[in-house]
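Example with several molecule types.
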Amino acid sequence: MQALYAAAAVSLLVSVVVDRKRTWQALQVTVRKLRRILPGYLHLLILLSFVLLVSDAMIVRLLGSANPWLGLGAGLAIGSITMIPGFISYPLAGVLVEQGVRLMVVAGFVTSLMMVGVVTLPVERAYFGTRLALLRNGVALLIALLISVVMGLAYGEWA
Amino acid sequence: MKRSRLFHILTYVAFAAFIGWSFVTGREQGVAVWRNFTTFAVTMLKLLPPAFVLIGLFEVWVSRETVERNFGHASGPLKYFWAVLLAATTVGGTFVAFPVAHALHGKGAKFSAVLAYVSCASLVMVPMTIIEASILGPKFSIVRLLVSVPLVILSSSLLGRYLDRRGYLLPAGKEGAS
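Resulting structure tokens for the full complex:
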């Protein structure tokens, strides 16, 4: 976050020094783009604030299923709905591993968490259109599944 | 446009009513939803303005030729390298990556490069991967990245080709000043 502010501040400063008029234009673009997408982000926030009601304990219970396919299915499903930033999801992943959840399930879970987002669809649709947004999320889900399978092989969890 | 606006407003009203009702009746889940909402709203409000300032500057300063040369039709496989590098250094992950991807495409970046960028922006963020390796072990991170990045590039290339062939257009009305 601080890096982002530093980058924005430095770039803005350089831009002002080089050309004041173009900088003003850039800021107008900033405001216009931000205003257009704000409803999308607001919807995302509303969806997200409901989704986060799902507790860590519930996730541990669902992912820790004795059947690896069931656990993986739950991991991919929960991971696809929610969109949790990495700094929250990795500590949770650590808890999952401690509770004995397979690493392949954790891999599918964190990957779909990062790449697939039903909750982020309001924003993604606005930028990419519904068709591409759905296609991209579908492909991402497939990739999450493949990563999980390979992770299972790498850690010998299929045996 | 009008209909979607009505839908937006109805959503907000319904949400506000739900929250208000939860507070009045003391429903804890509703109050928890509101707490989540404010927490993430603050994060978003901190994240989006500087990101969009950078996007605005990008629109004005970066020429179409530069983007086309590196991410456009004549760019070759090196564009994936740049896309992954750009993704790894994008602060804010997906939330910021979507508008950046849109701006890139508006300046002539191919779908394949844009898609690889968006997917990698959530997969290969440097600070996040360091946290990951420290919690789950470096082997986990290495396997995850070695599998996911090539798959993302492959699928983005295929998906991009499909979209090019169909002549897919991104939603209109959000083009920047180019």
